[in-house]
Amino acid sequence: MADTCKSLLELDLSGNQLTGGFPPDFSACSSLRILNLGRNQLSGDFVEQVVGKLISLKELRLAFNNLTGDVPLPDLTSSKFLEVIDLSSNGFTGSLPAGFCPSFPFLRKLQLADNYISGSIPADLGNCTNLQSLDLSFNNLVGEVPLPVWSLPKLVDLVMWANNLSGEIPGDLCSKNPALEMLVLSFNNLSGKIPESFTNCADLIWVSLSGNHLTGEIPAGIGNLQKLAILQLGINSLSGNIPPEIGSCKNLIWLDLNSNQFTGEIPASLASQSGLITPGIVSGKQFAFLRNEAGNICPGAGTLFEFEGIRPERLASLPLVNSCPSTRIYTGTTVYSYQNNGSMIYLDLSYNQLTGQIPSAFGVMDFLQVLNLGHNSLTGRIPNSFGKMTLIGALDLSYNHLTGPIPDSLGTPSFLSDLDVSNNNLSGPIPITGQLTTFPASRYENNSGLCGIPLPPCGHSDHNSPNTNADSRRRRIAGIGASLLIGVVLSVIILFLLALALFKIKKERSKSEELANGGGYIETVQTSGSTSSKLSESELPQLSINIAAFEKPLRKLTFACLVEATGNFSSKASSDPAGSAKCTAPDSRTAPSSPSRSSSTSPARATANSWRRWRPSAKSNIATSSHSSAIARSAKSASSSTNTCGLAASTWSSTTAAREPRASTGPRGRRLPSGRPAGLPSSTTAASRTSSTAT
């Protein structure tokens, strides 16, 4: 092995699944300059036993393994040519060792991020005068950053976010570090003001000071930073106006000023750099964006981190502010290569005290993807120009005082996946264009005049005009009152109709019972050549003839025939149960004969009563009232002889005909209808079922 690797210059075994230690035989690779064992599962103390003996080593990359113990910098002092030491994302503990810089005179890059290093930063770290990149992020470091570290002359990237560092940023930072490009100190306990000397850091690309306790105003000279692409000052105590000079940073693509105390209006100049950004200004930087999806519980739309050397699983558990966990993490490498010069892609001004209207100039930011203006005191309308932001994905305008309708143009952007306009004074129907109707109702709530999907439907046609909360309240009360009134009126109408129906049913039932008991008599009514009948409500004795029960008109009888049939109204003819007669009417029809109704009443009286109580119609050929009187006088002397008319003396008993259940043979062999005539009351009884057949 020793003879084989003597000429080996570079060994890259990264991104495998290697476990355990590193073979001791590799210590014989005396010419090895680059060793990359990152992204494995190596463990043990092979750094001291093997790596420390590689005297020609220039780059050592052991990130993303399972190495533990103290930071092994003292074990590498034999490798005096080391330029890059990357021990990120392991399990190293203890404090950062001091006094190692003289052993590494060529050290350019020291990365110890994502470990468990505690204590303070040693001041003699400033002796690494060739150090260009220092990354101590995501550890447990405390105390102030030593001034010699701030003053490293060749420092380009100073990244120490997510620690407990305190103190102030030196006022002469950029005077001593003119080559500084990245200053990422977010989520520490830094205090004081942003130094005015930032104007001298002409090469600054990424400035992140979010999550500290900074006060004062943003220096106006920051607009001189023509290379500045990312400016994060959120979650501090900064105040004053947002300087319009920021719009002069023509390469600014990410501006996060959320959760401060900024006042005044939003400068329209923030959109003035659109179309001027140089493609690829921050290409090649590792980043992680922690998306805030906790709604109004946690401030801001999210946080952008420099992500080189950080394990995603540890980042997910990072408590940012107010113990708000991140809910979604996006990682990658910055590649901003627009076909044309682009615009700002991220703008978060939420949780401030900004007033005035939203600049319509924001609509020209063609590449804007996140716009958060929520939790301010903005007024006016949502600009129609927002429909031109074709790449917008998240738009938050909640908790302001915006009025007017939601513009239809807002449904134009096809990438809009997160919209919140709740808690404003918006009015009118929610446009059905695009995906505006697909967002939950909570994204539109507490707007007095908004209606339509996903909110309740619009009830009035005047929703396009602005409405106040009082107007909406009055409309709701009026609507409720009208609904109650309509309900009461309908209830009264229904009850009235029900009572009327019950009354009619009861009345019909009474009539039926009256008819069943033999009540009522017939009144004829002439209707267009035909005769119809209707019941009169007058009560008459049960011997009355219920002509309405017959399906056919009454047969026409002559008075002579009637006298002949009753034997001149003889009592014998009326009382003889076997007596029968026939009488041929003028229309040649023969009337059926029936037995006597009752034996308790004299035949003559029954016959006379029957005749007296029958009212003939106008077309009957029966005798008139003078004949009726003669009939009454002759009834007492009626005999029992049978006449030649063939009609029984008691034929006119209305109840007699009703009791014949079967068909009988009529005079001259004609078969009569069976059953009782239609409409005749079923309660009618006959005293006798005997009938005679005419001979």
TrEMBL record:
Residues 569-695 are annotated as: Disordered. Its main location: membrane. Residues 588-607, 617-658, 674-695 have a biased composition (Low complexity). It comes from the Eukaryota. GO terms for cellular component: plasma membrane. Residues 275-339 form the Brassinosteroid receptor BRI1 island domain. It is a single-pass type I membrane protein. The keyword Hydrolase does not apply. It is an enzyme of class 2 (transferase). Pfam families: Island, LRR_1, LRR_4, LRR_8. It is found in: Cell membrane. The chain crosses the membrane at residues 477-503. Belongs to the RLP family. This is non-specific serine/threonine protein kinase. It comes from Vanilla planifolia.
